[in-house]
Amino acid sequence: MELYSRDGAKKVKFLSNFDIYTSKALDWKDTLQLSLLDFDPDPSEMPPVCRKSTMEYIKHLKKLGETLFELLSEALGLQPDHLNSIGCSKGCSIVAHYYPPCPQPELTLGVRKHADAGILTVLLQNHIGGLQVLHDDQWFDVHPIRGGLVINIGDLLQVLSNDKFKSVKHRAIASHVGPRISVPCFFSGHASLLDKPFGPIKDLLSEANPPRYKEFLLKEYLAKFFSSSLDGNKLPLDYYKE
């Protein structure tokens, strides 16, 4: 109860259901959210029960994020430091989801269908499965691999790459078995990007590859994402397509 809050400005908070006021049905989970504007957080801001492990994990996430963005830059035909230089690896949110055993899993989901709003997601999960991805209108299980991480493209990287990289719709199903633990880290860019025009990387555009998205302010897009229900028919990216 000390940490419970729905205040978007709080860096560390505990909550049940992100979109409790807009969704048609509640997801079967509780969440501890840690918002990091940079990768040097004050340890005293972290709950004592997970302070040491969280600070150690953040240190490794920073290195991994920078490496992933170098590889993605090269895959786009850009200089290796391009995505890091525009702030993609700076700032993230770590969201620890706890899915207790569900007595009637057929009546709900752990998380409903959605695509991630950010640039890139690094997912750590325990041995209990539940994550599914949508491909060709079919749901496929993503089985946990011991010691493995799931890397997921977000909507903003789809925009930056002008659709060369695609975000994937996914969900988490509820289960009689539990508890399931999943800890996604959402890289959404440095806070300085919020008030700047955001759109496809200019170096990727040409007559043969025109922009597929209008430029927009990142803070407006994020406000639209978090104010809408995950199960809505119109996705936030749809508002910005050319």
Summarize the biggest pleated sheet. 6 strands, antiparallel
> Compute the gyration radius: what is it?
18 Å
Number of strands: 12
Which structural class fits the helix and strand makeup? alpha+beta
What integer is the average pLDDT? 86
Task: Output the CATH homologous superfamily.
Answer: B-lactam Antibiotic, Isopenicillin N Synthase, Chain
Order of helices and strands: EEHHEEEEEEHEEEEH
- The percent range for helix content is 10-25%
CATH architecture classification: Sandwich
- Read across the widest sheet, the strand sequence of neighbours is 1-2-3-10-5-8
Total separate domains: 1
CATH class: Mainly Beta
At the third CATH level, what is the topology name?
A: Jelly Rolls
Gap between N and C termini, in Å?
A: 45 Å
- Compute the number of helices: 4
**Morphology:** globular
- Low-confidence sequence ranges: none
Report strand %: 15-25%
Structural summary, described in words:
The chain is α+β, with helices and mostly antiparallel strands and 242 residues long. The protein has one domain: Sandwich (Jelly Rolls), CATH 2.60.120. Helix content is 19%, strand content 24%. It contains four helices and twelve strands. The strands form three sheets. A six-stranded antiparallel β-sheet has the order 1-2-3-10-5-8. A four-stranded antiparallel β-sheet has the order 4-9-6-7, with no helix packed on it.
Could you list some keywords that capture this structure?
4-stranded antiparallel beta sheet; 6-stranded antiparallel beta sheet; alpha+beta; single chain; Jelly Rolls; 242 residues; 4 helices
